[in-house]
Amino acid sequence: MKIFSTVILTLLLLLVNNDFGQSKVNLFSLQNRKKFADYLFCNKDYLRAFDEYKIYLSEVNNDTIKFKIALGFRKMRRYGEALDYLKSLFFNSKFAIQARNEYFKTLLMANKINAIRRYIKEPIFITGDSLKVPLKLFYVAKMFGNTNLPDSNELKKIFTPEEYSQIDRFYWTKKNLPLKSLTKAGILSALIPGLGKIYTQNYGDGITAFLFTAALGTLAYANFKARHKFRAWLFSGLTALFYSGNIYGSVASAQIFNAKIAFDFRKKLKLYLEKVNYFVPQYNFICN
Amino acid sequence: MCMMSARYLIIKISFLNKGFRATGLIIALYLFAFSQLQFNGLLAQEYLKRQKKFADSLFSKKDYFRAITEYKRLKFFDSNGSFNFVSDFKIALSYKGGAKFKEAANYFNLALAEANNDSEEFTANIELVKTLIIARRTTRALAKINSLKKIYYGNKRKELQYWQGWAFMFAEKWVKADSVFRIIGETKLDSVCKNVLNERYSLTVAKIFSYLMPGAGQLYAGHPWSGLMSFAWNALWGYLTLKAFFAERYFDGIVIGNLLWFRFYRGNLQNAERFARRENKKIYNNAYDYLQFKFKGKKL
After folding, report:
1. Which stretches in chain B have pLDDT values below 50?
2. N or C: which end of chain B has fewer CB within 10 A?
3. Coil vs helix vs strand at A65
4. Most A-contacting residue of B49, B77, B91, B243 (CB-CB within 10 A), to test interface
5. What is the pTM of this model?
6. Which domains does chain B have, with CATH numbers?
C-alpha cells in the first residue's frame, strides 16, 4: 500500500511538472502573453503591451487589464481611447468607482473643462463615495476655466483640510490675477506712444516706441517747417504708421501679458494636481 | 536519451521480484522525472530558438515594430539570458530602422553590457556610433570614437577612423572629414568632401563683400535680385543721410542714418551671411543625398 501510494504520488508530481513545463515553454499561451504584457506595460512600452492584452482579453474578460489599458492610453496622451476604456468599466465592474474617478482625471488632463461641467450633473457620477473625486476635480476645473468661481466656503466642504489650505491659496490667486486691461493699454499708447507697453511691463519696447515715434514726428515737423514737402509727408506717413502700430502693439502686449499670467497660474495648479495625483488614490497593482 | 533509458528501466523492473521491483520502480520513476525536467529544459531552449527564428524573419522583412515585440518576448522568456545580446542588438537595429534613434542607442548600450566577446562588443560599439551620427549627435559620436581608438588597433581602428570621417561630414566639418578619408585611403568619400569644399560659399567672404559694397555678398551667394535691392536701399538712405549732413541738417542726418541707412546696412550684412549659409545647406544636402542613395560603400 505504502509503495503504491509513493508511486501514485511520484506519477502525480511528474504530471504536474510536465504540464508546468509545457506551459512554460509555450511563449504564446494566454498566461505567458499576460505576463509578457505586464512586463511591457511596466517598461512603458504601452502599444506592444496593448496588443498582447487585447489578445488576452479576446479570450478572458479581465477588468484589471481594461483599467490598465485606459491608464496606458492616458499616459500616451490618447485621451479619447482612455475615456472609452474607462467608460466600459462604469457598470458591473470591481473598478466602477476608480474608473469614474479616473474618467474625471482624464477629462481634466485633456483640458475638457466643459465636459466636466456637463458630466458632473449626470446621476451616474453622483452616487455615494464615487462623487468625492469628481466633485473635487469639478471645482478645480472651474479654476482652469474663465467662468465665475464658486463661493470659497463651498470648497471647504469638499476638500480635506490639508487639500483646502492649498486649494484656497490657488482660489484667491485666481480671483486676484494681476491681469492688464487691453483698452487701458491702447488708450495709454494713444496718449503717449509707448506708455501702453510700459503699463504691460514691456519697458524696453515702450521706451523704444516713444523715442522712435518722437524722432519721426520731429523729423516730419522740421521738414514741414523748412518746406521740404516730400520729406515732410514721407516722415509724417512713417510717424502715423509707427503711432498706430504702437497702439496695436500695446493691446497685443497686454494680451501676451495676460496669457502669460494665466499660463503661469495653470502651470502651478497643474503641478500641484500632479503632486496630489489629482486627488485619486495611487494603485499598487499597476506595476509591482 | 536519458528519458528512453528510464522508460527501458521501468519495463525491465517488471521482471524482477517484488521487493526489488518496488524500489527499482521508484528509482526509475525519479529518473524519469529527472529526464522530463531535462527534456523540458531542452524544449524551452528549442522554443526560444524557434522564437528567435520568428523574430529574425520579421526583422528581415523590415517589419520592425513586430520584430521588436518578438525580440522582447524572446528576451523576457529567456531565463538563462543566452539570447540577451542578440535580442538587445536586434531590438536596437529595429529601432534604428524605424528612425527611433534614442531608443536604438539605449538598446545598443544594453547590448554592449550583454556582449559575450570582443567581436560582439566592437560590433555593438560601431552600431552605436552609427546611430549617434545619423541622429546628428555627432559630438557624442566623436567622443565615443576617440575613446574607442584608445582600445582598438589595426583594422578595427581603421574602421573607427572611417566612421569618424562620417561623423565629421554630418557635423559639417568637411575639412576634417576630408583629411580623415585621405589618411585611410577612402578615395570616393574623399572626393565627396573635396566637391563640397570646392562648391561651398565662405561666410566670411560673403560678409566682407557686403561690408565693402552693400549687396555684393548676396550677389556672391547667388542671389543677384536681393543684392540689387539691398544696394538700392542703401544707396537711397545713404544719399539722404549724406545730403542732410552736407546741408548742415545734423539732426535729420543722424535720424535718417541711424533709423534707416544703418538698419538697411545691417540687414544687408545679415542677408549676405544667411544666403551663403542657406546655399551651403543645399550643397551639404546634395552630398548627403549622394551618400544615402548612390554611394556604394559602407554607410549609416
Report:
1. 1-3
2. N
3. helix
4. B77
5. 0.76
6. 2-135 (1.25.40.10), 205-276 (no CATH)
- Nearest Cα neighbor of A68 from A58, A52, A91 is A52
Cell of B18: 517484488
- Which residue in A has a C-alpha nearest to residue B20's C-alpha? A3
**d(C-alpha A18, C-alpha B267), whole Å:** 81
Instruction: Count the neighbouring beta carbons within 10 Å of the beta carbon of residue A125.
Output: 19
**Residue A91 phi, psi dihedral angles, 5° rounding:** -120, 150
Give the total number of structural domains in chain A: 1
* Cβ distance of B252 and A10 shorter than 8 Å: no
pLDDT at B41: 60
Residues listed for chain B: 300
- What is the average pLDDT across A83-98? 91
Does residue A264 form part of some domain? yes
Angstrom distance (rounded) from CA B144 to CA B121: 13
**pLDDT score for B27:** 66
Q: Which of A192, A184, A185, A189 is nearest to A246 (CA)?
A: A189
Return the residue in A2, A25, A238 with the most chain B beta carbons within 10 A, the one to mutate for interface testing.
A25
Give the mean pLDDT of chain A.
88
Nearest-by-CA chain A residue for B44 = A25
Given CB atoms, is A273 within the 8 Å cutoff of chain B?
Answer: no
Residue A236: give the domain boundaries.
182-271
Indicate the residue type of B138. T
Closest among B78, B77, B104, B79 to B93, alpha carbons compared? B104
Q: In B, which residues are within 8 Å of A32 by CB distance? A: 77
Which residues of chain B make contact with A39, given a CB cutoff of 8 A?
76
**DSSP character for B16?**
S
Give Cβ neighbours of residue B289 (< 8 Å, ≥ 6 apart). Answer: none
The one-letter amino acid code at B289 reads D
CA of B252, closest CA in chain A: separation in Å? 7
Query: A79 lies in a domain?
Result: no
Smallest Cα distance from B271 to chain A, Å? 24
